[in-house]
């Protein structure tokens, strides 16, 4: 048995008809389909106006999907839900209402509004994901310094914070104002020579993003498609930790040119990094390499080097699974302090050991980006 394809799912849904003879896909679009713990989860993006018409059709939709050829022991259940949320903010100004004040959890129009015209990211050369199999390995810090470092290499760079539940990009880049709107599209903010966008720019940083999977996927889709990125050589996407809906949504909506997996040296972290590499390979996304973060600690007083988490584990893992090793990033207080201050260490202290390590990473990745966009 193989997992149902997007085409098979859409064909099954077209068999589900409302009393007026229209199909469920005449009023909604397939937003995402994921197989998790034996259940096929399908999210349909629609408008608030159409939701009352479609709600009674969901049991029929689930029955149609259960009847797909090949549905068997691997898929024990089917769940179909609608994502329909409030309208987008008005054009010509900052987001209005509770979301703009930090009191709401849905600052974007997370539902569908009809088919999007043209490519999702016109003008963007390549999209690279920075990912990790688990949290706490310094993925976001690596993504920020890589993006700024790529800008220092002369590339036109955008940085998207796709960690919907824990957006940290605004604090790391020193950004404190919401994006402006132009003709209904958000304009990314400029910081340290790059363009940046995060849902953290639209909500109070103290708010907890208590969102279900389809809402996360809808928000991610809009951060990609409803932002006026302009002409970029590369868009760096700071992925949420793990191997879940956000990664699948990105692979479905855009063609990722590659992924960089961040890990620390110890065996437990490397187990999760291996899962991240496997996930991208299953989605046919090239793995550009593995970065070993917190690779070693240098005492600021005596210069003595200590391998707090071991050393060389990521290099050995990269060799074992056949992907490039992109370099080592030391564990230094300067990296933490610069992130808290909103000034990436790659530009705040470019000649420091941390700054040099990130510059070396940016040069390596930059060469790959130039080769891909040429």
Automatic annotation (TrEMBL):
The keyword DNA repair does not apply. Keywords: ATP-binding, Hydrolase, Iron, Iron-sulfur, Metal-binding, Nucleotide-binding. ATP binds at residues 133-140. It comes from the Bacteria. One of its GO terms (molecular function) is ATP binding. Pfam families: FeS_assembly_P, ParA. Residues 8-70 form the MIP18 family-like domain. The keyword Hydrolase applies. Binds and transfers iron-sulfur (Fe-S) clusters to target apoproteins. Can hydrolyze ATP. Homodimer. In the N-terminal section; belongs to the MIP18 family. This is Iron-sulfur cluster carrier protein. The lineage of its organism: Bacteria, Pseudomonadati, Pseudomonadota, Alphaproteobacteria, Acetobacterales.
């Amino acid at each position: 048995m193989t997992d149902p394809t997007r085409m098979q799912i859409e064909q099954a849904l077209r068999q589900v008809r409302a009393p007026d003879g229209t199909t469920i896909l005449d009023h909604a679009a397939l937003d995402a389909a994921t197989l998790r713990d034996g259940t096929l989860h399908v999210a349909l993006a629609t408008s608030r106006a159409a939701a009352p018409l479609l709600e009674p059709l969901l049991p029929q939709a689930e029955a149609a999907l259960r009847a797909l050829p090949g549905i068997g022991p691997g898929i024990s259940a089917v769940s179909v839900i609608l994502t329909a949320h409030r309208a987008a903010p008005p054009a010509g100004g900052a987001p209005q209402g509770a979301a703009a004040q930090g009191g709401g959890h849905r600052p974007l129009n997370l539902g569908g509004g009809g088919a999007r015209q043209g490519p999702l990211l016109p003008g963007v050369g390549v999209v690279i994901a920075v990912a990790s199999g688990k949290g706490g390995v310094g993925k976001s810090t690596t993504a920020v310094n890589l993006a700024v470092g790529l800008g220092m290499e002369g590339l036109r760079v955008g940085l998207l914070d796709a960690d919907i539940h824990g957006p940290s990009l605004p604090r790391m880049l020193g950004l404190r104002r919401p994006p402006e709107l132009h003709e209904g599209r958000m304009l990314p903010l400029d910081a340290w020579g790059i363009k940046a966008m995060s849902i953290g720019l639209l909500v109070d940083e103290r708010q907890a993003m208590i969102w279900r999977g389809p809402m996360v996927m809808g928000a991610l889709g809009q951060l990609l498609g409803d932002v006026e990125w302009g002409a970029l050589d590369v868009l760096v996407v700071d992925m949420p930790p793990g191997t879940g809906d956000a990664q699948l949504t990105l692979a479905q909506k855009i063609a990722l040119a590659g992924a960089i997996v961040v890990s620390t040296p110890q065996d437990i972290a490397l187990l999760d990094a291996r899962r991240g590499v496997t996930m991208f390979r299953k989605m046919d996304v090239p793995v550009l390499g593995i970065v070993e973060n917190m690779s070693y600690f240098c005492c600021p007083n005596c210069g003595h080097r200590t391998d707090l988490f071991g050393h060389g584990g990521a290099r050995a893992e990269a060799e074992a699974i056949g992907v490039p090793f992109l370099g080592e990033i030391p564990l230094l207080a300067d990296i933490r302090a610069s992130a808290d201050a909103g000034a990436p260490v790659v530009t705040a202290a470019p000649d420091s050991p941390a700054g040099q390590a990130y510059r070396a990473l940016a040069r390596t990745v930059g060469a790959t980006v130039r080769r891909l966009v040429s």
